[in-house]
Design goal:
With 499 residues, the protein is of the alpha/beta class. It has helices at residues 40-44, 46-55, 73-81, 116-123, 153-160, 168-182, 198-211, 215-224, 241-249, 290-314, 320-325, 327-341, 353-364, 373-377, 380-398, 403-416, 433-443, 448-451, 454-457, 464-480, 482-492, and strands spanning 5-6, 31-36, 63-67, 87-91, 98-102, 105-108, 129-132, 188-191, 230-233, 252-253, 258-260, 265-268, 285-286.
Length: 499
């Protein structure tokens, strides 16, 4: 291999010709967006759309300032600062990979306790959108009630110390307080997380938190700010040595490259109180019916990840593509999707639920995407409650079968017991892992112990068609093993009656 070229503004012209680089003058960009939670997904998705806008000579006053609110975000900031905030994107196609360097990010607020620098950045009137990717579980939602978790210690801290907040939402509120006092007006809060009604949830979080310390400010935020709902879609694996080596195969020394699939989708409600970039010029969709798009994606793609990954973790399969290559797990995926999930999903323009299931099967089976089962099973307490259980409840209400979804929940419980079938240990992988692990161990002899976790399942322990099926499937997983249980579901769709 030729000598690697360290990624920076100064070396863009030295990169190989087959690497696409920014076609715009990055020095001429000015900020318009602060993005909190600047992980791989954002850099492969929202930042890419903006980068392509800049390439077209459009909207160059909308560059991104990154931000993080966790101490570990400082390390990511250091990596990106060393390469002038540039990112190498490697598109993973089975027929061959391609590399592109994006430059839509032009800075990153210092990561500080109390978030003074971030608050000052968001208070700048040039900032007209504050966007977030903080994970599905990051919005301080009570899993049982679905409402705002006012009692969380972080929320209590921000209610008492609103000028030195702990959370991203507290920092946004502090910035909005400064903007209102200075007469600078509001900004749009844009959630880019996999939550149905994510804009509505962001509004509720900000307004509810602000009301704990300043009801007048809360009312102003609710009236003046906008919170468009959005749906985002692109499979983006975590970055490790393989991904860094892949960037190096293109001759680029990038300390934080991002790999991603060939598919992207962004559907956004057109509700921006302070203007917006023309993202639709580069493929995003603005619509008043985000709900139908996000319901299809969350209930088929995001739920589909959970259908696959827990079984894969139990059987020691490393990636989602490995899970799709397993005949028993892929049969589980197809049967649950077509019989118990897709019937509760509404078609969107140009796509039926059945066609979307087929598309997701192809995307998940892409062997070039090294998307680990561990990444996908992380934070199951948020992902099962957000992606699986709403469909399960609809099935119960409609009187349709929930056998497959009950098996999916039993697989999650089996996984949370903390051992694979080969005896190896599954490392803690959820913010509620100690509680989940305790319940999973108890459920081995008394399955209801798992469903009695009311903060996740609410009253579902009382729903006999689900609870009874869950008990049968979990019992089979422990007595017969995962593969035999999956084969039983494939052949019969339920535990056969005993002779």
């Amino acid at each position: 291999m030729d000598e690697l070229i360290r990624l920076s503004n100064a070396t863009l012209g030295q990169l190989p010709e087959h690497v696409r680089v920014p076609r715009y003058d990055r020095a001429a960009l000015t900020p318009g967006i602060v993005h909190i939670g600047l992980g791989n997904f954002h850099r492969a998705h929202q930042a890419w759309y903006l980068h392509r806008l800049f390439d077209a000579g459009l909207c160059q006053d909308w560059a991104i300032i990154g931000a993080g609110v966790r101490p570990q975000d400082a390390a990511q900031r250091d990596k990106l600062a060393a390469q002038d905030w540039l990112t190498t994107l490697v598109e993973l196609d089975p027929s061959g990979s391609a590399a592109e360097v994006t430059g839509s990010m032009i800075g990153y607020a210092p990561v500080q306790e109390g978030h003074a620098a971030l608050i000052a950045q968001m208070a700048d009137p040039a900032i007209r959108i504050v966007a977030l990717t903080v994970t599905e579980g990051g919005y301080y939602t009570d899993p049982a009630s679905g409402g705002f978790d006012q009692g969380h210690p972080d929320i209590q801290h921000d209610a008492v110390r609103p000028d030195t907040p702990r959370t991203a939402f507290g920092a946004m509120i502090a910035a909005l307080k400064h903007r209102r006092a200075a007469g600078h007006g509001p900004f749009t809060g844009l959630s880019c997380d996999n939550l149905q009604g994510n804009g509505d949830i962001l509004r509720r979080t900000l307004v509810s938190l602000a009301a704990l310390s300043d009801p007048d400010l809360a009312a102003w935020i609710n009236e003046a700010c906008s919170f468009p709902n959005s749906m985002v879609d692109c499979i983006v694996p975590a970055t490790g040595p393989k991904e860094i080596a892949l960037a190096q195969s293109f001759g680029i020394d990038d300390r934080a490259p991002v790999t991603h699939e060939t598919f992207r989708q962004w559907v956004i409600e057109d509700d921006f109180c302070a203007g917006r970039p023309d993202w639709d010029s580069v493929g995003a969709t603005f619509t008043n019916d985000v709900h139908s798009y996000e319901a299809m994606k969350i209930r088929i793609l995001n739920a589909g990840h959970q259908v696959l990954a827990n079984a894969g973790e139990i059987l020691g399969l490393e990636t989602i593509a490995d899970c799709m290559g397993d005949p028993l797990i892929s049969a589980l995926f197809r049967k649950v999707q077509t019989e118990e999930i897709a019937p509760h999903v509404t078609a969107v323009p140009g796509m039926t639920p059945a066609a979307y299931v087929a598309l997701i099967e192809t995307r998940f089976a892409n062997p070039a995407i090294v998307d680990t089962t561990r990444r996908v099973t992380f934070d199951g307490s948020s992902r099962h409650t957000g992606f699986i259980l709403p469909t399960l409840r609809e099935g119960l209400a409609a009187g349709t079968s929930v056998e497959g979804l009950a098996l999916v929940e039993a697989l999650w419980a089996r996984m949370c017991e903390g051992t694979r079938e080969d005896g190896s240990l599954i490392a803690p992988n959820d913010p509620f892992w100690p509680q989940l692990n305790t319940a999973a161990r108890a459920a081995r002899s008394r399955p209801a112990a798992w469903l009695e976790q009311g903060q996740f399942y609410g009253d579902l322990v009382q729903a006999a068609p689900f609870a009874d099926a869950f008990e049968r499937w979990l019992g089979a997983l422990w007595s017969e093993g995962c593969e035999a249980t999956l084969d039983t579901y494939r052949q019969h769709g339920r535990i056969p009656e005993q002779a």
